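Is this the right way to post structure tokens for a design question? Let me know if I should format differently. Anyway, here goes:
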């Protein structure tokens, strides 16, 4: 004898009673989050000014900015232009290394594509190293020139009365 069981369907999560509960939970969460969250007011200007002064002093000690508000010298302008160009070249070679790596990964065992990718990665890495060394050398030379050009020579004492 087979007893047939009446199968009851599982509860549908999108039924009205379940969706009402979900809407109530989301509304309660949003409402109470706005009620209990307090805005942050930045009122301590002295601390902000002190932090800004510390950053400015650090930048002055690192020769990033000068203490006096003077116009940049020709050496500084040339150094900035060279740094921008070398930075751009560094980004180009980095993109080439990444492109070569992606080509290598997607070669799928094709020896011709693997060889092309290896040579691209190798050449781009060499180019990246050359740009890095040029950047370091340029910064070293430019900072030395700036230091030499900003050293003030002591003035000679031209008074006629020598003690």
């Amino acid at each position: 004898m087979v007893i047939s069981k009446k199968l009851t369907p599982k509860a549908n999560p999108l039924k009205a009673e379940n969706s009402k509960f979900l809407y109530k939970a989301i509304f309660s969460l949003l409402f109470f989050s706005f009620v209990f969250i307090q805005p942050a007011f930045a009122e301590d200007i002295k601390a902000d000014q002190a932090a800004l002064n510390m950053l400015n002093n650090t930048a002055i000690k690192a020769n990033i900015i000068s203490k006096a508000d003077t116009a940049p010298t020709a050496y500084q302008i040339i150094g900035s232009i060279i740094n921008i160009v070398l930075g751009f070249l560094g980004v180009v070679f980095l993109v080439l290394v990444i492109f070569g790596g992606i080509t290598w990964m997607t070669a799928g065992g094709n020896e011709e594509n693997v060889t092309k990718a290896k040579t691209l990665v190798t050449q781009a890495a060499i180019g990246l190293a050359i740009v890095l060394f040029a950047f370091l050398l340029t910064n070293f030379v430019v900072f030395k020139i700036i230091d030499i050009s900003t050293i003030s020579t002591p003035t000679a004492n031209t008074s006629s009365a020598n003690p």
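Format looks fine. Someone answered above. Worth noting: The helical segments are 16-36, 45-61, 74-105, 111-150. The mean pLDDT is 77.
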